């Protein structure tokens, strides 16, 4: 676990400070409150890093969350406090959120949560899952996802667009460089 490691120093400490600076207590608290509403459980909803980590670190809350959104998506939730069992829970959660439609770039790696390396990416994943939860009849958080806006044009309209020459194609109108002489001519 994270408390069995030596403290980081030098470049690693500076990199960790930059990662931790991105963490938002408000977004973490909003995410935990949403999890509390979905699971109908009472646990600390403080958004500070310590509470956020303690609530989610074993992965059991995360697995129950995705099972509440889509029942049976995580087959087995490990109740053990052993490191590898907890990491299996986190990994099962990550596989489930990908199946629920969360983009891969908005997920996190297991060690980001288990070793407390990047809790901001965990918050981003929960926020993204919160947007997708609305598709499954659950309360959602964050900004509403955009709806698809397909447009269909007739063949006549498409052919009419091919006759127009846009300015991106180039133009012989406007300023040119003709008549500009800069410096001396080239001598060979």
Please, could you describe this protein's structure?
- This protein has a domain at 16-136: Calponin-like domain (Actin-binding Protein, T-fimbrin, domain 1), CATH 1.10.418.10.
- The chain has 188 residues and is mainly α.
- 47% of the residues lie in helices and 0% in strands.
- Helix 2 (25-39) packs across helix 7 (119-133) and helix 4 (60-69) packs parallel to helix 5.
- It is flat and about 80 Å long.
- The mean pLDDT is 83.
- Keywords: Actin-binding, Calmodulin-binding, Repeat.
- Belongs to the calponin family.
Topology:
Blueprint: H1 11-21, H2 25-39, H3 49-56, H4 60-69, H5 83-99, H6 110-114, H7 119-133, H8 155-161
Helix pairs in contact: 2-7, 4-5
Primary descriptors:
188 residues; mainly alpha; Actin-binding Protein, T-fimbrin, domain 1; flat; SM22_calponin; Calponin_repeat; calmodulin-binding
